[in-house]
Write a structure and sequence with these properties.
Shape: globular
CATH class of the largest domain: Alpha Beta
Strand order of the largest sheet: 3-2-1-4-11-10-5-6-9-7-8
Strand content: 15-25%
Order of helices and strands: HEHEHEHEHEEHEHEHHEHEEH
CATH architecture of the largest domain: 3-Layer(aba) Sandwich
Helix content: 40-55%
Oligomer: single chain
């Protein structure tokens, strides 16, 4: 695939991070070149202060093989990938880190440790995934959720999926995020449950059950992205043509949409998991260093946003 150079949207996020102190981040099992390089480059950019959790000898060997300078990065020795995940989560639970970053272990290994009932990082909020996408043909950063964790979310799940994404968007500088609830059509029909969920979510936002965003739906993808398409259908919407967040009906639709944007629209995508005790930087093994650094930048801003309610004044 053609090397992506981006459109500057991620660089705007990085600019928002300048002047902020790096956030201590537990990196679970960074035992291959891309994952270790992503952590080291994110540290070099001043975004994180990594605690590398994994087999110490292997981490040092990977660093040497790829010409990576570990500098003063702390290494916490762990026996294997499952142990790395458990130890990284424990560091967060004990207050030793404000972010968690996935290394080269499988996603289900990391999330298994995160969601463990007694030793994990659960909250009252449903855990969900967001892709923060730099789409060359769109005028701002676009958040797609949930395309990686919740397979067939219920209405109640979608409330948390929306709220997680709204809170993140506010954290990265969007004052009042616009949320398009996607379906195949823009009308409400009992034949398509996603349209009923969309209508319910909008009413719930009106009643304060979802806060901080402007919701509209159901919207077909063309109506969500193009104001002209919406007006052609007779939809007068504050969201149409200008959404910050796209909420998909299920994981399959979201996964297809995110990969379509990546491979046909040449979009970059950064990935985070939200709804746990701390934001989790969840990247794919195929992600570029740019995407990994962008994920760290978004996570850094999210971590700072989480501090605000407890600050005086």
């Amino acid at each position: 695939m053609t090397q992506k150079t981006g459109t500057g949207k991620y660089e705007e996020l990085l600019a928002r991070c300048r002047g902020l102190e790096p956030v201590v981040t537990a990196v679970a099992h960074p035992c291959d070149g891309p994952s270790l390089a992503g952590a080291i480059e994110s540290a070099a950019q001043g975004l994180i202060r990594p605690i590398l959790v994994g087999p110490a000898a292997r981490i040092r060997s990977v660093a040497a093989a790829h010409g990576l300078d570990l500098g003063s990065a702390e290494i916490v020795d762990a026996a294997h990938s499952h142990d790395s995940a458990a130890r990284a989560v424990e560091i967060v639970r004990q207050g030793g880190a404000e972010l968690l970053m996935k290394g080269s272990l499988h996603t289900d290994e990391l999330l298994g440790a995160v969601l463990a009932r007694d030793s994990g990082m659960r909250t009252g909020r449903r855990v969900s995934h967001v892709f923060i996408m730099d789409v060359p043909t769109y005028h701002k950063v676009l958040v797609v959720t949930d395309a990686a964790i919740n397979i067939a979310p219920t209405l109640e799940d979608k409330v948390d999926i929306c709220q997680n994404a709204i809170d993140l968007a506010i954290g990265i500088g969007v004052a009042r995020p616009k949320v398009a609830i996607l379906a195949a059509v823009e009308t409400v029909t009992s034949k398509m449950p996603a349209t009923i969920d969309a209508a319910a979510l909008c009413k719930m936002a009106e009643r304060g059950q979802i806060m901080g965003g402007i919701l509209d739906g159901p919207l077909a993808f063309d109506n969500a992205i193009s104001r002209e398409a919406a007006l052609t259908k007779g939809i007068d919407s504050e969201v149409a043509g200008d959404p910050d967040i796209l909420v998909v009906p299920d994981l399959e639709a979201g996964n297809i949409l995110a990969k379509l944007l990546s491979f046909l629209a040449n979009a970059d995508s950064a990935g985070l998991v939200l709804g746990a005790r701390v934001p989790i930087i969840l990247t794919s093994r195929s992600d570029s260093i740019r995407s990994r650094v962008a994920s760290a930048a978004v996570a850094m801003l999210a971590a700072y946003a989480r501090r605000r309610p407890s600050e005086p004044g």
